[in-house]
Amino acid sequence: GAVVSQHPSWVICKSGTSVKIECRSLDFQATTMFWYRQFPKQSLMLMATSNEGSKATYEQGVEKDKFLINHASLTLSTLTVTSAHPEDSSFYICSAAGTGETQYFGPGTRLLVL
Amino acid sequence: DAKTTQPPSMDCAEGRAANLPCNHSTISGNEYVYWYRQIHSQGPQYIIHGLKNNETNEMASLIITEDRKSSTLILPHATLRDTAVYYCIAVTGNQFYFGTGTSLTVIP
To answer: How many angstroms separate the CA atoms of B39 and B37, rounded?
Structure first.
């Protein structure tokens, strides 16, 4: 149980384009979903928290207009990196939590912006 | 959330118990201690969590000191597949702030 998927697993795009990453909870309803970013040899950094049907709450320093988050249902959240630049290249990981605090993480999406 | 401190790296012989310490001296009474691990290039995997009492599941045991200022994750019989970065997180509410973790290497 508690499986979270992400799609795509990796993506390469040109600078200036937008990229959408999907996060799905496959066998439970996710009241809250989270998006993290991880640079090489660093720890995970929380970007934003989203509740189904509500606007996401962004961490300090994370641009909400650049990283658009939509949590349209209890099993799906999407992260769109708008006008991506090389410095946005990173490992993006989502997680989902049901009624408790325990978060279950997806496998991650590796983004490379050329 | 309370800050946690972990040693940056540890080695453990295959088949032996791996004991990973975590210091959370500023933890508050309602903060849970969560442990996750991250194998290279994958998302973190939930291991175990606890509040005051020691906990055990099929993956590991969690020992929390009586004053709750530190805890130890125990992998009873480490295998090569347990090589990963282990994160200890003190949590109030639903937001996790990851520290740098402990890189555990299980040696054949």
So the answer is: 7
